[in-house]
């Protein structure tokens, strides 16, 4: 079998893939799956796409299924700290040994058949590893999150999902998916399969129109979920409560351990998807939603400290809406950074105009995609006259935020999932010491 890599070597190998391989074709992916013995064959899938919220929908669906005694595999992206976060079995990330076994199966195949197949891209490689892991662990259902778009995404090689879900659609990755909501919705709707039901966020008519048309063409039953289908009845620092007003769950009240209003929509999408899957009202719904966890999405990481992965215009907009609704007896501060390939000026403009922050703590990411601190600082200075502090690295910025924060203050962290991952590492380091 040759030399076996450890987890760091395997991750370094994966991180190097973009240097010698771009996204391949569906035919190439299917050929690799064939050579691997079709690990996806026999698996049952729930396929989830969307610009924002798809990871949360996956988390809610997985939790509901677990509470109803299914053995659940979940494939999501990106990871915040450990690459194994992308592969969950019953809500727990897989161990390194299981990951490495699957990694080496694929690595050896790519070496042995390199004259016959094109080397998978980074995301394709991880998806294929996931298929091997979930076959090995004999899961009942795999909850599968799209990486980018839908129509041409690596995950779209699956043929007949139990149900498809399309979460909130907004403008992101416009250089790849198109620069209008309709174009992006068309790409997302590419996961809809012949005759298979699709549940979708019906908040935006421009997107809904495209999804309905795609569903009709595929004779796929379409289940819209609209914000009018539920009422948010309570919110506090630990979560929100909402009551369903329409549909099969009308009258039921639920609580989720997230402070953002949009999580009511994500939970409603998940509830609808599992209801379709079961053909009846599944049990233990209240417990399932209450026990859902999804790191880095308006997550309370310390008392009075919330971390959110908002990193595009729509994500920042709903992040701001959430910030303004959280009660605060003291001051609110934002720790912010961003990557260079996002529309950071619009994001910063939204933040400065829409949120009631008392000050901004700025830093630079440790990533080749990092937006230079100079650009971030100059943009904030143009947009606001509120107090600004800037730090060359995340460790110093986070330490300053914690020193400045009083018991009544709130600190929010947003702008990039890279930032969220780095903060997670600092918190783990602190807990370990």
Automatic annotation (TrEMBL):
Task: Name the SUPFAM superfamilies on file.
Answer: MurD-like peptide ligases, catalytic domain (SSF53623), MurD-like peptide ligases, peptide-binding domain (SSF53244)
Q: Which InterPro entries match?
A: Folylpolyglutamate_synth (IPR001645), Folylpolyglutamate_synth_CS (IPR018109), Mur-like_cat_sf (IPR036565), Mur_ligase_C (IPR004101), Mur_ligase_C_dom_sf (IPR036615), Mur_ligase_cen (IPR013221)
**Catalytic activity line of the entry:** (6S)-5,6,7,8-tetrahydrofolyl-(gamma-L-Glu)(n) + L-glutamate + ATP = (6S)-5,6,7,8-tetrahydrofolyl-(gamma-L-Glu)(n+1) + ADP + phosphate + H(+)
Q: Which GO terms describe its cellular component?
A: cytosol
Report the residue ranges that make up the Mur ligase C-terminal domain in this protein.
Answer: 296-416
Q: In which pathway does it act?
A: Cofactor biosynthesis; tetrahydrofolylpolyglutamate biosynthesis
Its domain of life?
Bacteria
Task: Say if the entry is tagged with keyword NADP.
Answer: no
Q: What is its EC number?
A: 6.3.2.17
Q: Which residues form the Mur ligase central domain?
A: 48-273
Known cofactor(s): Mg(2+)
Listed under GO biological process in this entry are: one-carbon metabolic process
Q: Decide whether keyword Nucleotide-binding is in the record.
A: yes
Q: Which UniProt keywords apply?
A: ATP-binding, Ligase, Magnesium, Metal-binding, Nucleotide-binding, One-carbon metabolism
Give the EC class as a word. ligase
One GO molecular function term of this record is: metal ion binding
Which protein family is it in? Belongs to the folylpolyglutamate synthase family.
Q: What is this protein called?
A: tetrahydrofolate synthase
Q: Which organism is it from?
A: Lientehia hominis
């Amino acid at each position: 079998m040759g030399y076996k890599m450890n987890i760091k070597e395997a991750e370094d190998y994966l991180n190097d893939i973009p240097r010698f391989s771009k996204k391949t074709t569906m035919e190439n992916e299917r050929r690799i799956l064939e050579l691997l013995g079709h690990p996806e064959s026999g698996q049952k899938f729930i396929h989830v796409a969307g610009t924002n919220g798809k990871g949360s929908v996956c988390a809610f669906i997985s939790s509901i299924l677990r509470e109803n005694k299914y053995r659940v595999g979940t494939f999501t992206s990106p990871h915040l700290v450990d690459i194994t976060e992308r592969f969950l079995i019953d809500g727990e990330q897989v161990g390194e040994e299981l990951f490495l076994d699957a990694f080496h199966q694929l690595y050896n195949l790519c070496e042995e058949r390199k004259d016959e197949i094109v080397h998978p891209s980074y995301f394709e490689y991880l998806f294929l590893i996931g298929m091997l892991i979930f076959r090995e662990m004999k899961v009942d259902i795999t909850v599968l999150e799209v990486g980018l778009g839908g129509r041409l995404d690596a995950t779209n090689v699956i043929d007949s999902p139990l149900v498809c879900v399309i979460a909130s659609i907004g403008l992101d990755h416009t250089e790849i998916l198109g620069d209008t909501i309709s174009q992006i919705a068309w790409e997302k709707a590419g996961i809809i399969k012949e005759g298979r039901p699709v549940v979708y966020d019906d908040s935006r008519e421009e997107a809904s129109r495209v999804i309905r048309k795609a569903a009709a063409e595929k004779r796929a039953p379409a289940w819209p979920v609209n914000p009018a289908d539920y009422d948010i009845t309570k919110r506090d620092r630990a979560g929100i409560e909402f009551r369903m007003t329409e549909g099969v769950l009308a009258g039921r009240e639920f609580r989720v351990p997230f402070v953002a209003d949009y999580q009511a929509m994500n939970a409603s999408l998940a509830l609808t998807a599992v209801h379709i899957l079961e053909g009846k009202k599944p049990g233990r719904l209240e417990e399932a939603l209450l026990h859902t966890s999804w790191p880095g999405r308006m997550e309370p990481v310390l008392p009075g400290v919330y971390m959110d992965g908002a990193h595009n215009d729509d994500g920042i907009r709903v992040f701001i809406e959430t910030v303004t609704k959280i009660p605060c007896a003291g001051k609110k501060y934002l720790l912010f950074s961003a990557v260079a390939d996002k529309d950071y000026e619009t994001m910063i403009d939204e933040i400065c105009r829409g949120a009631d922050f008392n000050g901004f703590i700025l830093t630079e990411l440790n990533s080749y995609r990092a937006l230079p601190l100079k650009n971030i600082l100059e943009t904030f200075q143009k947009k606001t006259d509120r107090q600004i502090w800037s730090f060359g690295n995340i460790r110093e910025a986070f330490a300053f935020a914690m020193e400045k924060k009083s018991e009544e203050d709130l600190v929010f962290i947003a702008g990039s999932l890279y930032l969220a991952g780095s903060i997670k590492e600092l918190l783990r380091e602190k807990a370990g010491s």
